[in-house]
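HUMAN: Ready with one sample?

ASSISTANT:
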Amino acid sequence: MLRSSSRKRGALWRDPAFRALVFQAILLLALLALITMIVLNTMANLESRGITTGFGFLNERAGFSIPQTLIDYSGDSTYARTFVVGLLNTLLVSIMGIIAATIIGFAVGIARLSTNWLLAKLAAAFVETFRNIPLLVQILFWYFAVLQALPSPRQSLSVFDTFFSNVRGLVMPDPQPLPGFAATPWALLAAIVITIALAVFARRRQARTGKALPIYWLGTATIIGVPLAIFLVTGMPLEWSVPELTGFNFRGGVTIIPEFMALWLALSIYTASFIAEIVRSGIQSVPHGQVEAANSLSLPGSITLRKVVIPQAMRVIVPQLTSQYLNLIKNSSLATAIGYPDLVAVFAGTALNQTGQAIEIVAMTMAVYLIISLLVSALMNIYNARTLLKER
């Protein structure tokens, strides 16, 4: 009798792949059952308390004011409008905090490696001081110990009788655009496009001939000069609302509230102390032979740092920098401690207390922070991919 060449297959439950699939299916069913139980229990509790679910409350009248709004808002606005106002305030302080923290962090990180003993020690003291004090304490310090110690509006600190600083904030002239101002933003956009085109041309020209163009000066002159020229040609289509003290407060102008200033300063300085260490470690990760090679070519120190060291250090800096940007955005929710009207304060705070729609409001707030963080991560990952070392 011929012996079969194929081996008889054993029991199915002895197959590791099949057992793994069964265990995963059981775990998935258990997870779905748990989520279903939580949802049903929550719905039953809400129904027993007479709390309706859904997002219909967004069309209801909010009935409260907000001290800082980037769009038109009044007490008659809806909760949906409140959500947008809080979101814009969160984005404003986050974007400005990221910009300031990046500039300060890079400056301090480079200063930590300076050959100037005093400058290096001052930079080290900055890092060790601000990164070891809790962020909430720093927010309270800037708000209560610094900004709330400013004089009253009648005794405001003034600069040229145009800019005023007092306990209620920083008051400055407010530019009011006239009809002819519409051409200026388009001129700025055109200047940016021209600058990008000049940068591409300068890079190709340098690769072909070895001659570099002062693209930074040319770009700066273009971005400033073109809109300024259009602005002057159109007859300066702006009128300024200058603040004037009337009674116990200022009329006219625009006021930057102290809550925004305190939060912005604290977020920027606290995050910059971490970015400074990231920059320092990134620069030190670049082999010293790169600097020696640049010195052998008689490159100035500033060009060596900008063209040789920093581009290579960015491969180490960018991933950690992304984490600090995300931390800054999430840390902005501490604004509730001083009453800055961000998303958490006005929507997940006041709106939640008035409507009782906890699930919907908290879910929307969580989704906003998640989406913002994912967008920032995606943009930084794209930049990180461009800075990675390409193997040939």
